[in-house]
TrEMBL record:
It comes from Eragrostis curvula. This is Amino acid transporter transmembrane domain-containing protein. It is a multi-pass membrane protein. It holds the Pfam family Aa_trans. It comes from the Eukaryota. Its main location: membrane. Keywords: Amino-acid transport, Membrane, Transmembrane, Transmembrane helix, Transport. It is found in: Membrane. Residues 194-573 form the Amino acid transporter transmembrane domain. Residues 1-12 have a biased composition (Basic and acidic residues). The chain crosses the membrane at residues 199-218, 224-243, 264-283, 303-325, 337-360, 380-399, 411-435, 455-477, 489-511, 517-539, 551-573.
Length: 580
């Protein structure tokens, strides 16, 4: 028997491949390792739990509170969506149980070349599908296991209960039951990230499809609307740092829902979670609209007329791509798909290069035009620019996964600074190239006879196609968690995911306005997630400790966010109704 299995952590054997320098027992601040007593396994001593709130008014959620509170799958599903994995052979094999079993046959045959550690104590065991410690524990309760104390990684969601409570006979909660290994297979918690890896993860979150509409924002709001970009970027960067301070206030806070729970109780956790999941769902609607628009521009004459049903190119391709995406949403393990999604940064960079290529070498050129300011449509531009900074739901996960958390302010500032410059550059270049004819996505304006235009349009097709399943999975898991225990099986899960995909198609066909829907999302969800909630949670958690000037600043940001959300959402909805 392998040494790791004798120690009782065979399921954790591949959890930190390539990360031997990490101190797995370090505390949340990267300091000294914890003591070996039982309190180190429970996420903190009773005294720490009692004093982690604001003078005892509202304690941070302890382990039992986090296990019973919905949602439990948030941490790992969002990690899978945002993190850019390191493409090594061993981590790819660790990502999929089927590949792990295949790899195990090679181990038995004597070929352990791919599974050697750099330090070299022998091959790593692949005798069972790789599962996070909590799911492995649930799937093996019926098997005799050695009662061995194991230091728990802070990345695990949910944390393993203390050994003293394992046999307590507590009823299994629905939120824990849905994490059984025979039901879903979330990837293992991500290893600790370096500063460079965290920057790439930040770019992967911020550099999304929002960049396609920045030129259209100038058309709607005028040239002076560009001033909103640095203002929104600076405010969003500051509120991202506020989320960091909220996490630092308690060792039990790791995600955005945890922050909401500490600030406003269980109802705060539920409200924050619902807002975040609605934002992800709406992003999937935008993916369907984007796929329909892009493919209909490549094949504009495509249509379908059958038994009285007439579908134009946009509707036909939206339905077709949704059906092609559906099998990927059914997958029980999306770890390998996350490697394709990690190409989001590369796809965005390629589209930007193609835009400048067409403008400089394609004969289109740059022609200054447009108005200085259009107040009536300025709220639409505000929503479009705001959507570009909708990454706050992932920032706590990036911060929690960093090796050196003191580098997070630099990572956040660098990502926002670079992205703001890129957004402004693309907006100016795109509008100067296409002027008042600029469409909701500048790729639709690029002449199709040029090779760079073809590359750009297909990049905008592949990117949302690979990201759809990863974006929808957190929403599906949250719904499956809330179902009764007897309904938590794979067949019901497939039905839930199918209904979600079909519903996004219906919404996308009812509101086929890519820019206006994005402006609505930026006005409502981005203002909530990026401006209003971080300031409100920070003032609630740090009540009595925040200086007066910062209190005034946070209140000002909240008021600005509320006004922008109301005005932007009203303008977007009004224009959508007028366009029908």
């Amino acid at each position: 028997m392998d040494r790791d299995e004798e120690m009782g952590h065979g399921d954790r054997s591949l959890l930190f491949i390539g990360d031997e320098d990490d101190d797995l027992g370090a505390d949340r601040d990267g300091g000294s390792p914890p003591s070996s007593d039982d309190s180190s396994l429970s996420g903190g001593s009773d005294d720490d739990d009692a004093g982690s709130g604001r003078d005892g008014e509202r304690d941070a959620p302890d382990d039992d509170g986090q296990k019973g509170a919905w949602p439990q799958s948030y941490r790992q599903s969002i990690d899978m969506l945002s993190a850019v994995p390191s493409p090594t052979v061993s981590t790819i094999m660790a990502a999929s149980p089927s590949l792990s079993r295949l790899g195990n046959s090679f181990v038995k045959a004597g070929s352990s070349f791919f599974l050697k550690k750099a330090g070299g104590e022998g091959s790593l065991p692949l005798t069972r599908p790789l599962l996070p410690p909590s799911m492995s524990h649930l799937s093996q309760q019926s098997q005799p296991q050695p009662q061995q104390l194991v230091r728990q990684s802070t990345d695990s969601l949910p944390p393993r209960p203390p050994p003293a409570r394992q046999g307590s006979g507590l009823a299994e909660r629905p939120s824990r039951a849905c994490l059984k290994s025979d039901y879903i297979e979330l990837p293992p918690p991500s290893t600790k990230c370096s500063k460079g890896q965290s920057i790439i993860n930040g770019f992967n979150v911020l550099c999304g499809v929002g960049i396609l509409t920045t030129a259209y924002g100038i058309k709607e709001g005028g040239w002076l609307s560009l001033l909103l970009l640095p203002m929104l970027g600076a405010s969003s960067c500051y509120t991202g740092l506020l989320l960091k301070r909220c996490i630092d206030s308690s060792p039990n806070i790791e995600t955005y829902p945890d922050i909401g729970q500490v600030a406003f109780g269980i109802f705060g956790r539920i409200f924050v979670s619902v807002v975040l999941y609605l934002e992800l769902y709406a992003s999937c609607v935008e993916y369907i609209t984007l796929l329909g628009d892009s493919l209909s521009s490549v094949f504009p004459s495509t249509h379908l007329a059958f038994t009285g049903i007439n579908l134009n190119a946009h509707n036909l391709f939206a339905i077709t791509m949704a059906l092609l995406i559906l099998p990927s949403v059914w997958l029980r393990n999306l770890s390998l798909l996350s490697y394709l999604s990690a190409g989001g940064v590369f796809a965005t960079l390629t589209v930007i290069i193609c835009l400048f290529w067409v403008g400089i070498g394609g004969g289109v050129g740059f022609h200054p035009s447009g108005t200085a300011l259009n107040l009536t449509r300025l709220p639409v531009a505000l929503g479009l620019y705001g959507y570009c900074y909708s990454g706050h739901s992932v920032f706590p996960n990036i911060y929690s996964s960093m090796k050196d958390r003191s580098q997070f302010p630099f990572v956040l500032l660098f990502c926002f600074l670079v992205c703001t410059v890129v957004y402004a550059g693309v907006a100016v270049s795109g509008f100067m190239m296409f002027g008042e004819s600029t469409m909701s996505q500048f790729t639709l304006n690029m002449p199709q006879e040029f090779i760079p235009s073809k590359i750009a349009i297909w990049m905008t097709i592949v990117n949302p196609y690979t990201k759809y399943a990863l974006t929808m999975t957190p929403v599906a898991l949250s719904i499956e968690e809330a179902l009764p225990k007897k309904m938590q099986n794979y067949l019901v899960g497939m039905s839930v995911r199918t209904c979600l995909v079909l519903s996004t198609v219906v919404v996308a066909l009812l509101f086929p306005y890519f820019a206006l829907v994005m402006a609505l999302l930026g006005s409502v969800f981005t203002m909530l997630v990026a401006l209003i909630l971080p300031c409100a949670c920070y003032l609630s958690i740090k009540k009595g400790e925040v200086p007066l000037w910062e209190v005034c600043l946070c209140i000002t940001i909240i008021l600005i966010g509320v006004v922008c959300a109301c005005v932007g959402s009203y303008t977007s909805i009004h224009q959508m109704i007028s366009s029908r």
